[in-house]
């Protein structure tokens, strides 16, 4: 059996689990049809505690069911997506175009402060819904206003964004990654729209990644920075997350192909090598949580989302491989990473998933998280697109 055959077999298993278990669970028990929004978690007994709704989860669930609709899921994906869009537009966006971070199910604001991460996922979910044709004009205009407000209110003079105004430190690479992701999603959602704001934003983040986030010596991407985009002193400035090496690589390949940027493609190759060579445990077959900037292990817990980003990165590598051997290697890693992801599905509630596997192979006793559905269906969508 070739690597492609193994990857296709894993895709079939993944699709069946997503369509028959995960999507039905989060559409039913994970959606608050009475009050609005989505539930954050479902525990091992099927219980969802009542907690504030994070805007990032609203955006992620909108995306998840927009993708489910495109993939041909037999459930009512548009109803779930529309439910999320209505909640987002009615309760999560302030008059100034910024996004509130947390609300109660009735729309009462719990945390109205700006958070770049939440803002990014609101934009991302809106792009996914618009790409299906749902409320396209409304969402397009709202997203442009939100993008421009984000840039005007929190833009950093050297590129990227502040965490808050007045400034708080450290500055973080991670929310910028999701702004990058949202920008690319909007470029795909409205490619002929005559608005170059998404192009400019994607280019700004891509260039910031190449010049500031990635260590030119090791090719690894760090997480925490001072106000001038230099790594913060001490251990925080040394943290490297293998999952983010893979996730940034996937985005940099997409951007590099879009812009003809060979430097981005080369950087992505180095990021994947860091993530695979230094950030995976061959015994468990899983990507781990953290390494140091000298590429030694810091935290060997393996989280669910890290496995999905490994899948996406190797799919992107396979699509840009310059030799049959390189493509075979990349597809083999896709199959291995997808097989690793399946370990997390052994959850007491069908369609739920464990979040963390310890070094000894046992699961941390946690609830299944709504936020992880986005990671999984994004990986599945890429498997359908690129295989």
Automatic annotation (TrEMBL):
Record protein name field: AGE family epimerase/isomerase
Taxonomy, superkingdom: Bacteria
Keyword Isomerase: yes
A Pfam family it matches: GlcNAc_2-epim
InterPro entries associated with the record: 6-hairpin_glycosidase_sf, 6hp_glycosidase-like_sf, AGE/CE
Family indicated by similarity: Belongs to the N-acylglucosamine 2-epimerase family.
Entry keyword set: Isomerase
Keyword Cell membrane among record annotations: no
Organism expressing this protein natively: Devosia oryziradicis
């Amino acid at each position: 059996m070739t690597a492609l055959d193994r990857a296709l077999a894993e895709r079939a298993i993944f699709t069946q689990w997503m369509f028959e278990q995960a999507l039905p669970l989060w559409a039913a028990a994970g959606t608050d049809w009475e009050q609005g929004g989505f539930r954050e978690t479902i525990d091992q007994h099927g219980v969802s505690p009542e907690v504030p709704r994070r805007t990032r989860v609203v955006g992620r669930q909108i995306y998840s069911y927009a993708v489910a609709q495109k993939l041909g899921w037999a459930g009512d994906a548009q109803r779930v997506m529309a439910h999320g869009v209505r909640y987002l537009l009615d309760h999560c966006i302030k008059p100034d175009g910024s996004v509130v971070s947390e609300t109660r199910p009735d729309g009462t604001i719990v945390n109205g402060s700006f958070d770049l991460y939440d803002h990014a996922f609101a934009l991302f979910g809106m792009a996914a819904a618009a790409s299906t044709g749902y409320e396209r004009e409304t969402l397009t205009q709202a997203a442009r206003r939100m993008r421009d407000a984000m840039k005007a209110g929190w833009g950093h003079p050297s590129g990227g964004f502040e965490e808050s105004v007045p400034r708080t430190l450290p500055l973080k690479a991670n929310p910028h990654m999701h702004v990058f992701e949202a920008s690319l999603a909007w470029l795909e959602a409205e490619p002929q729209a005559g608005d170059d704001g998404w192009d400019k934003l994607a280019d700004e983040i891509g260039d910031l990644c190449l010049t500031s986030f990635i260590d030119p010596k090791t090719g690894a991407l760090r997480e925490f920075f001072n106000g001038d985009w230099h790594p913060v002193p001490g251990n925080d400035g040394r943290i490297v997350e293998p999952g983010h090496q893979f996730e940034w690589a996937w985005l940099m390949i997409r951007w590099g192909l879009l812009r003809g940027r060979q430097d981005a493609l080369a950087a992505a190759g180095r990021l994947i090598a860091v993530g695979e060579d230094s950030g995976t445990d061959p015994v468990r077959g899983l990507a781990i949580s953290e390494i140091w900037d000298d590429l030694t292990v810091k935290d060997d817990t393996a989280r669910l989302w890290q496995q999905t980003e490994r899948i996406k990165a190797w799919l992107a590598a396979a699509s840009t491989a310059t030799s049959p051997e390189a493509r075979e290697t990349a597809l083999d890693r896709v199959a291995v990473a997808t097989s690793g992801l399946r370990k997390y599905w052994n959850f007491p509630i069908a369609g739920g998933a464990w979040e963390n596997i310890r070094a000894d192979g046992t699961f941390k006793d946690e609830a299944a998280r709504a936020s992880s559905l986005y990671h999984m269906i994004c990986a599945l969508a890429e498997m359908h697109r690129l295989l």
